[in-house]
Amino acid sequence: MLHKKHRLPSNINFGSSKIFFSNAFSIKIAQGQSEFSRFGVVLGKKIDKRAVGRNKIKRLIRSSIEKLIPKMQKPSEVLIIARAGIREMNNSEVASLLTESFKKIKLI
């Protein structure tokens, strides 16, 4: 579970943010307003109708993020919006895809 200082509050506006896409999720990035990087994960009902399935995917993404937090270069606010391709992935695939995406974005 992400520490409270790394959780993204709901009142953040990503209106003029950068957006990056992959086959499993899209990532919105805004400049950090705090001294820590903060993350949010969003999943729609189209990905999995059951709340149990959606929560499992969220936990999978958050556990991958926890491993990447010490490598973060600058504080930023990141919103990860999961897409349908993430449903078939396992933990190691999600972690490697997130790592690759963060490297492309130059957060790591």
Question: How would you describe this protein?
Answer:
The chain is of the alpha+beta class. Helix content is 31%, strand content 21%. The chain contains two helices and four strands. The chain has a four-stranded mixed β-sheet, with helices on one face. Strand 3, helix 1 and strand 4 (76-82) form a beta-alpha-beta unit. The model has no long low-confidence stretch (mean pLDDT 91).
Outline of the structure:
With 108 residues, the chain is an alpha+beta fold. It has 2 helices and 4 strands. It has a 4-stranded mixed β-sheet, covered by helices on one side.
Q: Any descriptors?
A:
four-stranded mixed β-sheet, single chain, 31% helix, 108 residues, alpha+beta
Tally of separate helices: 2
* Structural class determined from secondary elements: alpha+beta
**Lateral arrangement of strands in the main beta sheet:** 1-2-4-3
Which spans have pLDDT < 50 for at least 5 consecutive residues?
none
Q: Say how many strands there are.
A: 4
Q: Layout of helices and strands, plus pairs?
A:
Elements: E1 18-21, E2 25-31, E3 38-42, H1 51-68, E4 76-82, H2 91-105
Parallel strand pairs: 3-4
Antiparallel strand pairs: 1-2, 2-4
Helix pairs in contact: 1-2
